[in-house]
Amino acid sequence: MPSPRALLQLARHRLRHPSSSGVLQPLLEPVLHPSRWRIRAIGASMFLGHPLFYLVWTHWLPQPYENLWLRLLVAGLGLSLLAIPAASVAPPSRATAVVVTAIFWLTLPWFFSWMYFCNGGNAVWLASVGAMLLIYYHLTDWRLATVGAASGMAVAWVMFEAFGPQAPALGLELAATNTVVLSFCWYTGIVLGLSSSNLRREQLNFTLGTMGIMAHELRTPLATMQLIAEAVRNEAPQHGGESGERLQQLGQRLNHLVRNMNHQIDMQITNARLTRLPRNAERISAAEVVQAALADYPYRSTRERQAVVVRVHADFHFFGSPALFSQVVDNLTKNALRSLAAASSAIQPGDLLIEIGALGQRGRIVFTDNGVGMDAVLRKRIFQPFFSTDRGTGHGLGLAFCQRVVHAAQGTIRVKSAPHQGAVFTIELPVA
């Protein structure tokens, strides 16, 4: 029977995720279309552009207010984008997302609004703020941009009233005109941001749905292979000796291959639901979900099965979907066994160690393998959709799917690895 505290936690979880339908849940994207070139272009533009505009507005086309130190501060924030390689990784870590969001907020809505107020809302800074709004919505998620623009303008106004220089007062007619122009820019930014967000989700949904359909269609030839396998096995007793034994082995091998392929298809179809995970939550035993998933896993050999060792230091319960967390265990187990198979040494018992434990209000499921490992570049990208270290058969959705499932349960997943030193995947979850 769940404790009152566990029931309260379940209620909070359902309030956070009220939707249990398959409708796509919009994702917050701190940096739209992140890439190393894009982030460097933004950082370089800020680093070089602000000193240049300081010279323009001070010496060539003087404006009522300019501040060299403020310009250098904003240019320094642009330089910091060049020094944060993690900013171009998708999806970014939480810390990177917070840092990049703060940089965008300071250098766009806050800075431009401050300069607008200090220059008395003149034509130059009216146009600049309008351009800023469109740029802001082009760089980050429309929801972050909307909240950021409103809060940046408000903070800049408060700071201007408290610490700002003397500036010409905005007349009623000028204030009304500027409000109309900025409202139009803001509305346009929201509309473009919404349409761009919907388009990205529709494209991803179409791609993943197509993959799921293709995987499902593979079941037809597999059913034929299953019938052939049964026919071969039924034929085996009629052929005595070595020939009959060989037919029996071939039939068993076909059955095993069909079972393995059906298992992979189930994984592909589940992974294809990457962006629309069901939000129904149950109280799950970590040990039970891990052991059940491993019992159903289609190992390719007895040696592979023996390589997996489970140690339950302390079982714990958490809220989530048992089916989805079984898929998480499947994905992590499959990746670890592939890494072990790629290593030079033969697989040994315990080469994949799965440990379950709890400390205080946090539970842990840790997958430790002695496989080939990965370098720092791969570690930063393995949770990115469609990125795969297995160029032959990998679809690049397994770990992205794992991350989404764990995050939906208010948990975290991280990896520690180095070349030829294996990998450690750690899942942390709030104890229910």
From TrEMBL:
PROSITE patterns: HIS_KIN. Signal peptide: none annotated. This is histidine kinase. Residues 213-432 form the Histidine kinase domain. One of its GO terms (molecular function) is kinase activity. InterPro entries: BphY/WalK/GraS-like, HATPase_C_sf, HATPase_dom, His_kinase_dom, HisK_dim/P_dom, HisK_dim/P_sf, Sig_transdc_His_kin-like_C. It comes from Ramlibacter pallidus. SMART domains: HATPase_c (SM00387), HisKA (SM00388). It catalyses: ATP + protein L-histidine = ADP + protein N-phospho-L-histidine. It comes from the Bacteria. Its EC number is 2.7.13.3. The chain crosses the membrane at residues 37-57, 69-90, 97-117, 123-139, 144-163, 175-194. Keywords: Kinase, Membrane, Phosphoprotein, Transferase, Transmembrane, Transmembrane helix. The keyword Metal-binding does not apply.
